[in-house]
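Progress report, Aim 2. The chain analyzed during this reporting quarter is listed below.
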Amino acid sequence: MGIPPESILDFSVSANPFGPAPAVRSAAAVAPIDRYPDSACIELRGTIARALGLAPENLFIGSGSMEIIRLLALAYISPGDRVLIPEPTFGEYEVAAKIMGARIIRCRAGEGTGFRFEVNDLLARIQEHHPRIVFLSNPNNPTGQYWRRDEVESILRADADALLALDEAYIAFTEDRWNAIDLLSYRNLLIIRSLTKDHALAGLRIGYAVGSPELIETLRKVSPPWNVNAPAQYAAAAAIQEQAYVERCREQVLAARDYLVKALLQRGFRVLPTEAHFFLVKVGNAAVFREDLLRRGIAVRDCTSFGLPEYIRIAPRTMPECRKLIEAIDSPGK
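Predicted structure tokens for the chain:
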């Protein structure tokens, strides 16, 4: 479209709009790039382990949560294995499973419920199909549904041989959070977390998985050497110490979300309930709606790829930028 990317106000990416903390930027800048990074991420694993009250053996560091999802599929899925995926959700679960030849078992929520899943439907499919892996985004992308602790525990208990991949990429901006680390006594649980969303490190690619030492060792066996670059390791170690910064950002992000939801409801849009900072809006033709805004320098997420062609997903930015989004919606085509 001839629009400089740096001029776009991007509401399509659900990351911290305030960017990394200054200390995180500084740490990345001094990382040594003239030698190989620590392939085992020893210092970073120790830093995160201490912050979480765990042993380093409970942690695997990946080049973003996407690498962890791919490595999990590589390690645990054989051709013909069943993988259960509640939909609509992050499409890369299915991509990773299909690369390994898995058979996808779907549990799709409908528009009548606001695309919210019922745990009993999921439990019934687990008991019927005995999947090798259950992928669960929590909060779910793109709907913002947040599974309660008792619901997740019931999924873990439904089949001890079914590995639950609990993807908490957006947990930092979620309301009424509970701590999934408390469930590590279940040996079939792998928690996947991203530092790219809460600390705005998408360009560095950094995330981690938490699980039993046996699960973590299996991931390490299939991981390529030097999978996490040095600037990412340095930035992540600094980011773990900046939780107060993230909490301050979280308060502002949720306030901006509430402003956008109220403004859109006042304008007659259907906005689906969410426990995350991002949310779905029914706009009719999502592709057309997105393109109209993009021509005016604003990006929102067309959810057609989630199987929701009438919906967009919006992630809040700063309050002045959110006001610009509403102004653009108020003056379509200008």
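The longest strand covers residues 82-87. Residues 243-266 form the longest helix (24 residues). These observations will guide the mutagenesis work planned for the next reporting period.
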